[in-house]
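$ ./design --mode recover --in tokens.txt
reading tokens...
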């Protein structure tokens, strides 16, 4: 089943000795007892190995610690209702991983290396995939610069890894209040906003802390140049239902090309919705909320799935409240997406990839 992946006896032992977490699961806290590793050096990828989960040791000059040359992906393994395990559109994560690698001056990973790693961890850890709807095995492939040298140039050595966590909801609230971010910028044209790299998230954290202090759950990022157009929520993409049409910001190089976003566009069309991808002015949206023409808004992502937005606000105390904080559009889209991912609905696009289990 795996040609490239080598599973060490210690990894098998670690799996045998591990018990799946019981009770309510939080996101990304408990990890499965193994991880997958491959090192890149001298222009070549070394062996792909599954080893016991544990700390990695790095020299203090390791480039990633100073210059942040790092990328990652977020994926899920599903196993509800006695079905699965399934992965959802893993080739999209693979493509985006290599897109991010190119943008960050890193080597691409070969398809078999990426796929055997994510399928390997899903397969060997199938018993630890939660079985309740909405829960899953959150899979985190990542790669970082391991060259030991303080010079600023693309590293010649990389580590590719995959870890995984039996996880519950990323956002535990049923709906969120969103701060319209007018001061800070997440990304700008020509930057790295459309690459899945740690720095984009690090740069959003201060704004998130300030938003939380002001009573908001999330930050809505506007375009870096004019602070006028809606972009995304850092970790999630944005949708609004306005005048009976589903709007989402048209992609540009400062918005992450979400796989959930892309899937929702297709599923919403299948549900008979008109989907509009275009630049969305924040003032236009707020006016539509005031007029009652915007009835719902929601954010979406692999980890978050679909989370309704109840309210937008700013630091001046202005508020724009939506009439539906669990509206029918967000609800039907979430049900359809989850039904497909969990193998309950017909998969007419071939998005759901079964993974063979190994015992
Ligand atoms: C994901 O949805 O997988 C992400 O990478 C977002 C992250 C903030 C958890």
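writing sequence...
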């Amino acid at each position: 089943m795996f040609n490239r992946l080598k599973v060490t006896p210690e990894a098998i032992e670690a799996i045998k000795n591990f018990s799946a977490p019981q009770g309510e699961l939080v996101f990304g806290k408990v990890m499965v007892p193994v991880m997958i590793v491959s090192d890149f050096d001298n222009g070549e990828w070394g062996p792909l190995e599954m080893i016991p989960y544990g700390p990695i040791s790095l020299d203090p000059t390791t480039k990633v610690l100073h210059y942040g040359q790092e990328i990652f992906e977020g994926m899920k393994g599903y196993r509800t209702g006695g079905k699965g395990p399934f992965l959802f559109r893993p080739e999209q994560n693979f493509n985006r991983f290599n897109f991010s690698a190119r943008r960050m001056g890193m080597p691409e990973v070969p398809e078999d290396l990426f796929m055997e790693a994510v399928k390997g961890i899903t397969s060997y850890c199938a018993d630890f995939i939660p079985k309740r709807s909405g829960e899953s095995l959150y899979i985190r492939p990542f790669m970082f610069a391991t060259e030991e040298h303080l010079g600023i140039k693309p590293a010649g050595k990389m580590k590719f890894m995959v870890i995984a966590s039996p996880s519950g909801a990323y956002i535990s609230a049923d709906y969120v209040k969103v701060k319209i971010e007018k001061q800070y910028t997440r990304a700008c044209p020509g930057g790295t906003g459309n690459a899945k790299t740690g720095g984009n998230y690090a740069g959003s954290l201060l704004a998130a802390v300030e938003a939380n202090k002001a009573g908001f759950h999330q930050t809505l990022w506007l375009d870096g140049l004019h602070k006028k157009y809606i972009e995304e929520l850092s970790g999630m993409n944005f949708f609004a239902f306005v005048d009976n049409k589903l709007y989402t910001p048209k992609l540009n190089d400062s918005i992450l090309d979400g796989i959930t976003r892309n899937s929702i566009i297709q599923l919403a069309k299948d549900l008979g919705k008109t989907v509009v991808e275009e630049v969305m002015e924040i003032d236009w949206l707020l006016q539509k909320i005031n007029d009652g023409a915007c009835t719902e808004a929601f954010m979406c992502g692999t980890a978050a799935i679909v989370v309704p937005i109840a309210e937008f606000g700013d630091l001046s105390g202005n508020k724009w409240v939506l009439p539906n904080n669990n509206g029918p559009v967000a609800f039907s889209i979430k049900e359809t997406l989850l039904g497909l991912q969990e193998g309950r609905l017909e998969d007419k696009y071939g998005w759901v990839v079964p993974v063979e289990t190994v015992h």
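exit 0
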